[in-house]
Amino acid sequence: DIQMAQSPSSLSASVGDRVTITCQASQDISNFLNWYQQKPGKAPKLVIYDASNLETGVPSRFSGSGSGTDFTFTITSLQPEDIATYYCQQYDDPSPTFGPGTKVDIK
Amino acid sequence: VQLQESGPGLVKPSETLSLTCTVSGYSIGNGYYWGWIRQPPGKGLEWVGSIFHSGHTYDKSSLKSRLTMSIDTSTNQFSLKLYSVTAADTAVYFCARVARYSGTYSGAFDIWGQGKAVIVSS
User: Which residues of B touch A101 (CB under 8 A)?
Assistant: First the structure.
């Protein structure tokens, strides 16, 4: 299976701050990389698909970039409702795998 | 489109965990892949398996010997059976739809059920 690493594992930022999360795959996965937001007690929500495409209905302050093994997820201006854990997920391999998650909270 | 998991919340060790996902707002016989993802308490997400409307399945290799998935287009449901469970199978189990963009499957899970908590304990 392809292994996914995320950093940091957690972060605290102020409202309005720019937040960046990185995800690294153990091998080249082209752009087959998705990002999810999960709030406590809720199902994950798809935010970015295919590395850089914003899912319908998701605010434009969310963005993604990267290809190959290194990917970045950015929130340009952190809002209180963005408090959640964010997961990357690859699907280059027939067995999709998720990163360990990054917990984002407000400073 | 909405998905809803159902099944027992408590399963004894060595027994079989059985869950069903009921899809509303879309006829699953018309296409799409459907998947199962689980999340142990306080931990991250783990893909379990996916099934196509035709019945073709993809299973997580480490679970393959214990896992059966099926789909019933007449009831608009798909199901998971995990045999010989242990405490390590305790998790919230989510069913989800595999997204399709411009007619191509993307591998992203775009619609999720609310999740079903399953505890394996005697």
Answer: 44-45
d(CA B78, CA B20): 6
**Would the CB atoms of A44 and B94 count as touching at under 8 Å?**
yes
CA distance B14 to chain A (A): 25
Share of chain B above pLDDT 70, in %: 100
Whether the Cβ atoms of residue B78 and residue B54 lie closer than 8 Å to each other? no
Burial of A57 (0-12, 13-18, 19+ CB in 10 A): exposed
- Average pLDDT of chain A, as a whole number: 97
Where are the extended beta strands (E) located within chain B?
2-6, 10-11, 17-24, 33-39, 46-52, 57-59, 67-72, 77-82, 91-101, 104-112, 116-120
The radius of gyration of chain B's CA atoms, rounded to the nearest angstrom, is 14
Q: Indicate the residue of B44, B96, B113 with minimum beta-carbon distance to A98.
A: B44
Distance CA A21, CA A5 (A): 11
pLDDT of residue A94: 81
Judge: B44–A97 Cβ closer than 8 Å, yes or no.
no
* pLDDT computed for residue A41 by the predictor: 96
Which one-letter DSSP state was computed for residue A55?
P
Are the C-beta atoms of residues A68 and A29 closer than 8 Å to each other?
A: yes
What would the pLDDT profile of B71-117 be if each residue is shown by its tens digit? 999 999 999 999 999 999 999 999 999 998 888 888 999 999 999 99
